[in-house]
Amino acid sequence: MPLVPVGEVELSYERGGSGPPLLAIMGMSGTLQSWGEPFLGPLRQDFDVIAYDHRGVGESSRMEEPFTIAQLAGDAAGLLDALELDSVDVLGISMGGMVAQELALADPGRVRTLTLGCTYCGGEGSALAPPLTAQRMATAMGSGEREQVIRATWEICISPRLRDDSALYSVFHANALARPVARDVILAQARAIFAHDTSGRLSRLQMPTLIVHGTADDLIPVQNAHIIAGHMPAARLEIFEDVGHLFFWEEPARSAELVRDHAAVHV
């Protein structure tokens, strides 16, 4: 995978497909492989898709010190600079959706359309993982057992209807083992998420925005989608019934079609 210098770090990325550029920003503990081919494959038919690893993840530079969501957005902007891309469609999920918010706020003219999936803006009414979910994840990570962490992450991020899908889990499990993310990096990402708050600034964004969330999301409750939409009244809100945090794993074709149609309508 190619590496590009971005400020004090280097970022690893993959690029493929044809069409207008689409920057895909992954969430906490994920890597560029975490998107899954059933979702990215269809997008590459219509977009030049750029997916990358955050600092501290995959082949990107090791994490040297704590960071903020705004700094991760600066990394994303630096990647676009390095690739000489002045205007892109942006897709961000979970923590990546928070990064996408800060990227759009910092340079709104650069973001042609914005898609925010299963994410959070902070502020009144917003909520991260409920206590039982947070405790379950903390217990798994505290165990030091990678298999326990992978299984707990899967069960938290997928809806009950698919938790026992062994074929889907085997792909998730293989991805997690192939490109593990260090515990210290995940904790740094979590601290950045806890400090994230764009709620008072989102109304400034005028680019076409799509918000996607599943009602069975145990990690970032669906109420957050409605709160973001409340700050962005012109945004389109799509709610997936009985779908979990990894909506693009559970409904890859439908999710890709939403992203494609959203961008196409606003050509």
Can you tag this structure with a few keywords?
267 residues, alpha/beta, single chain, Rossmann fold, eight-stranded mixed beta sheet, 10 helices, 8 strands
Please provide a written account of the structure.
By secondary structure, the chain is α/β, with parallel strands linked by helices. The chain has a single domain (3-265), classed as 3-Layer(aba) Sandwich (Rossmann fold), CATH 3.40.50.1820. Helices cover 42% and strands 18% of the residues. It contains ten helices and eight strands. The chain has helices at 37-44, 69-82, 95-106, 131-143, 146-157, 166-178, 183-194, 223-231, 247-250, 252-265, and strands at residues 3-6, 9-17, 21-25, 48-52, 88-93, 111-117, 209-214, 236-240. Strands 1-2-4-3-5-6-7-8 form an eight-stranded mixed sheet, sandwiched between helices. Helix 1 (37-44) runs parallel beside helix 10 and helix 2 (69-82) packs across helix 3 (95-106). The mean pLDDT is 95.
- The overall number of domains is 1
Say how many strands there are.
8
* Overall pLDDT score: 95
Are there runs of 5+ residues with pLDDT below 50, and where? Answer: none
Examine the secondary-structure arrangement and name the CATH architecture. Answer: 3-Layer(aba) Sandwich
State the helical fraction: 40-55%
Q: Report the major sheet.
A: 8 strands, mixed
CATH C-level category: Alpha Beta
Q: In percent terms, what proportion of residues is strand? A: 15-25%
Distance between the termini: 30 Å
Task: Label the structural class.
Answer: alpha/beta
Radius of gyration: 17 Å
Order of helices and strands: EEEHEHEHEHHHHEHEHH
> For this structure, what is the CATH homologous superfamily?
Alpha/Beta hydrolase fold, catalytic domain
Shape: globular
CATH topology, by name, is Rossmann fold
The number of helical elements comes to 10
How are the strands of the largest sheet arranged?
1-2-4-3-5-6-7-8
